[in-house]
Amino acid sequence: MRKKTKILVVDDESIVRESLHDWLGSVGYDVVTAESGEDALLIIKQKKIKIMLADLIMPGIDGIELMKKARKIVPTISTVIITAHGTIQTAITAIREGAYDYVEKPFCPEKVELLIKNLIEHQDLIEENISLRRKVEEKYLFEGIIAKSPKMVKIFELIKTVAPTSATVLIIGDTGTGKEVVARAIHHQGQRRNQPFIATSCAALPETLLESELFGHEKGSFTGAVERKKGKFEAADKGTLFLDEIGEINANTQIHLLRALEEKKITRVGSNEEIDVDVRVITATNRNLRSMVRQEQFREDLYYRLNVVTIELPPLRDRREDILPLAEHFLKKYGKENNKSIKNFSPEVVEFMLNYSWPGNVRELENMIERGIILSKQNAITLAELPQDIVYPAPHEGKTIEAVMRKHILNVLKETKGNITKAAKILGIRRMTLYNKLKKYDYTVNKLDS
């Protein structure tokens, strides 16, 4: 236990203040008290408060409003709400606004002590992550890729192995996993590092213009071709050409691409002249090319030509060790770009980032942090700056794992007659996690009995 942790108890009832002061003080904490929200704010400005226990209902500033004001002064302060109105909705409201947890009056001192102990462990973990983030960018930076997870370390080794060769590389991964970043890493680790790296998306142009984009065209070869144009292959000569969304190219372009790879020659649209090109090709896709080959949507010979070496990027949800290092990198990047001195994430944001599924992968994380930087008026990003439909998603039905989980949770709550503590124990989850689930399902105790 951290003996010097400073705790502020705020309650308009002297017996509550005194009992918590004496009990928590007796087990080694540094406890100060305030009888109003106004007094509490003065103390927070003067002392390094780590944890605040605040009564929900007080004259003047109530507990939730006090919590909000306190976090503007000390963004890392953690709040436990004290309430005699311990309904699920009260708990959900408090936690949704940023409280760590809540305790009901009359409370058991031992339970409050255990809650404080768990909260300190939670804070220690957050602080450890913040400390590590300060060092992690240099330690885990590899050619623009920030990662420390075992899966990504293996990919780093594969990049180092394949980069010095001339082999074509196929990068497979969900949208937003960083396929182009990996392609650039291969280029910069290879012998062509001082030559051009040209990137293009095969899905960004209509089929009629894609061949012109890749291989160039002659003046007058089609409507709008007002002058001769070199394509990406010529622009990347002696260097690397990265073709993203390779699964989107049509059959005709597939033939020409195969020829370029096998013969190292291209022909501009509207020309019969062959042009020699020396280009290393790296491709990427989020589609299953092998399945497309079976369905005769993609040439088998081209597939094997592209797939000399495959690098499969895991989604961000499968490499959670990388979330905080990436988040710190984007925090610095967009803080600098937007001229804002935002140095941290609130503990709740850290917990959210570590538990969110990130369907949009690294790109979604980057966009979310950029949004938080822009919207934040404090020196830390809080849940309020994140997209609320993601932080607090609406309930949904369907034969999914989430639907099965929802049904199980509600059944357990019915069996315990709405007792949150018992239900959380049976489910093997924290009360805060259960509150978040109930908030997501938009259920209250009364609804459980309906």
**Rounded to an integer, what's the Rg over CA atoms?**
29 Å
CATH topology of the largest domain: Rossmann fold
Number of helical runs?
20
CATH superfamily of the largest domain: P-loop containing nucleotide triphosphate hydrolases
Average pLDDT over all residues: 85
Proportion of helical residues: 40-55%
Strand segment tally: 16
Residues in β-strands, percent = 5-15%
Straight-line distance between termini: 44 Å
**3D shape:** elongated
Describe the structure.
The protein is an alpha/beta fold and 450 residues long. The protein has four domains: 6-134, Response regulator (Rossmann fold, 3-Layer(aba) Sandwich), CATH 3.40.50; 150-313, P-loop containing nucleotide triphosphate hydrolases (Rossmann fold), CATH 3.40.50.300; 317-391, Helicase, Ruva Protein, domain 3 (Orthogonal Bundle); 401-448, Arc Repressor Mutant, subunit A. It has helices spanning 14-26, 37-46, 63-73, 88-96, 109-139, 150-162, 179-189, 207-215, 232-235, 251-263, 289-294, 300-306, 323-337, 347-355, 361-375, 388-391, 401-415, 420-427, 431-441, 445-448, and strands spanning 6-10, 30-34, 51-55, 78-83, 101-104, 141-142, 145-146, 169-172, 197-201, 240-244, 265-267, 274-276, 280-285, 309-312, 344-345, 380-381. A five-stranded parallel beta sheet has the order 2-1-3-4-5, with helices on both faces. The protein has a five-stranded parallel beta sheet with strand order 9-10-13-8-14. A two-stranded antiparallel sheet has the order 6-7. Helix 5 (109-139) packs across helix 13 (323-337), helix 17 (401-415) crosses helix 18 and helix 18 (420-427) crosses helix 19. It is elongated and about 95 Å long. The two termini are 44 Å apart. The model is unreliable at 133-140 and 445-450 (pLDDT under 50).
